[in-house]
Amino acid sequence: MRTSDGLSTTWVVIPVYNEAPAIEGVLEDVTALFGHVVCVDDASTDGSAAIISSVPGVRLVRHPINLGQGAALQTGIEYALQDPAMTGVVTFDADGQHHASDAARLARRLGLPGPDGRPLQAVLGTRWAEGREAKRPGGAGPARRLLLRAAVVYTRATVGLRVTDTHNGLRALSREVAASLHLKQNGMAHASEILQRIKAGRFCWAEEPVTIDYTEYSKSKGQSPLNAINILTELWLGRR
Amino acid sequence: MNWIIKVLLVIAVVLITGALARGGGARRLALRRLGLAVFALVVVASILYPNAWTRVARLVGVGRGADLLLYMLIVAVLALVATRFARDRRVQQQLTALARRVALAEAVPPTAPPASGEVPVPPGRPASGAERPGTGGGATS
After folding, report:
1. Both B14 and B44 in a single domain?
2. Model confidence over A13-39: pLDDT tens digits?
3. Which residues constitute the domain of residue B30?
């Protein structure tokens, strides 16, 4: 840890694919708190890249072809690793469902003592803490809730980490964790892959409650519940 | 079968195997060509002696030669799908690595001073680089 306030050496990695309506507001919120922000444009076709490059202080990395969210995350993390002063990365969704203040809270916990006393190397956002999800009127619909719960049960059983929210895009990872990631799942199965990495590397991790805003926009961008079938297939095939 | 269909089928098999016997690594290619030669001989033989399949089918406990062929076809298709799939995965990972290298090479490095909003082109970029309209240029807005 270089400074007590980890934010000045933290990179926020935002994978972007066709998020033109939301990305500018997201970047305004994030740049208000973080000095280092990189957007990985996954070959958007709606002019997202032009909007990103108009926001001062935001770095833009452009995939020449569309590769998927996992691939974009990996590219952004490798970009951040090029900065020798970087002590941690925060992964952040581009559709406005996360709060920058939550991201800052996650990032500040990196390096603080974790559940086992060691310094925290991974802080994972969870939407299920203290029943806040259930009480919120604009929360996830029943199908999505059921799906996310099933994903939690499945991931706990297969990965062996007792997490409460396996598919939350908001997480803070220390430099060591970031450097050990080699996401092979280009699609959406990377969420489980990151957890597998944390488990395999015996990194010290904790969860932190975060708020997810299910706006009409983020819902329209969200995955169909049927996509769970694809994620399961990708995970199974990826084992070979 | 009369002789016309036999001639047509033989020609078709020769053309298809000829088309398939191109490309690939030297050793693999040689093996594939050998396999194709055997395959072509078997196909020609079965066109000329259609009853041979029925005899082979009886030998392995299948009623008719046509049934045996169908089973073999299903197995061959499944094998093809499996090898295609593995290959697609490999190619996808190579493509991802390549695209990532391109993306990172084109980006302003994180340690460079932050572009102050108006500086669109990273310094030190080769002039021969591919021109991409709209790549961060100040042209928008």
Report:
1. yes
2. 999 999 999 999 999 999 999 999 999
3. 1-49
